[in-house]
Specification:
Shape: elongated
Radius of gyration: 22 Å
GO molecular function: DNA binding; DNA-binding transcription factor activity
Oligomer: single chain
Organism: Streptomyces typhae
Keywords: DNA-binding, Transcription, Transcription regulation
Number of helices: 6
Protein name: UTRA domain-containing protein
Order of helices and strands: HHHEEEEHEEHEHEEEEE
């Protein structure tokens, strides 16, 4: 790599450096590649390490970089679109669903989930755990709550536990006629279990997406999905909006 010196600019030096670094990420680095250490980067761009850190922190906030424990600072994958305004919908586990079922258990849900499902607080439901991966990295974790009445023909003998059990719940749920769904999004902080699943520190910013699936005049299932805020963007509209993916292979979908 050549040496690039920064010229005097009216904007903060770290902000201009952020732009220069962003261009370098597009042209010189691949997704997942580890950046050189701070000393080498500061020398290349002719800035103090404090200025470099400010620029790197800004790029991390924008989702261009990721700081991975035990690895270092790497180039982040393109942000994954999370559609929140689409009028179209389908059951979890339908064809084209990018989520991977991990496990399922029969347990009482949290009190707020029980209220949303319209069931008694101590009434057990099927709790399906699923994960979503992008470019080999976990970007979201989901808890899907399904009342027993929504999947009355589920056989515990055929799939007693694990991913097979989760797929069985999703299969039976998909037999219902989906009447609609509504979705709410809020910014939150990663709890300990979510942070572990998403390879983040507890308290890291996340997007909490709650989806209510409607069938037979009521709530047939409730999904609570936790997305890494640094790897996702919200999209709106029936077509999911426009997503701009940064990197050597830029494209719009």
């Amino acid at each position: 790599m050549g040496t690039t010196q920064l010229e005097s600019v009216p904007e903060p030096k770290y902000w201009h450096l952020k732009t220069v670094l962003s261009e370098a990420l597009d042209s010189e680095f691949a997704v997942g590649e580890i950046l050189p250490n701070e000393r080498d980067l500061a020398a290349r761009f002719g800035v103090a390490r404090a200025t470099l850190r400010q620029a790197l922190e800004q790029l991390e906030l924008e989702g261009r970089l990721q700081r991975r424990r035990g690895v270092g600072t790497t180039v982040a994958p393109p942000r994954m679109g999370v559609a929140v305004g689409s009028a179209q919908g389908s059951w979890p586990g339908a064809v084209g669903d990018a989520w991977q079922p991990a496990d399922s258990e029969f347990a009482a849900p949290p009190a707020d989930v029980a209220r949303a499902l319209g069931i008694e607080p101590d009434e057990p439901v099927h709790v399906v755990r699923r994960t979503r991966v992008s470019h080999g990295q976990p970007v979201a974790a989901e808890l899907l709550y399904v009342p027993a009445v929504s999947v009355p023909d589920l056989s515990a003998i055929d799939a007693p536990a694990g991913p097979a059990r989760a797929r069985a719940v999703l299969r039976e749920l998909g037999r219902l006629v989906l009447e609609g769904q509504d979705r709410a999004v809020e910014l939150g902080s990663a709890r300990a279990d979510d942070a572990k699943a998403l390879d983040r520190l507890p308290g890291a910013p996340v997007l909490l997406v709650t989806t209510r699936f409607l069938a037979d005049g009521g709530t047939a299932a409730l999904s609570v999905a936790t997305y890494r805020a640094d790897t996702c963007r919200l999209t709106f509209g029936d077509q999911g909006g426009v997503e701009i993916h940064h990197g050597p292979e830029q494209r719009a979908s």
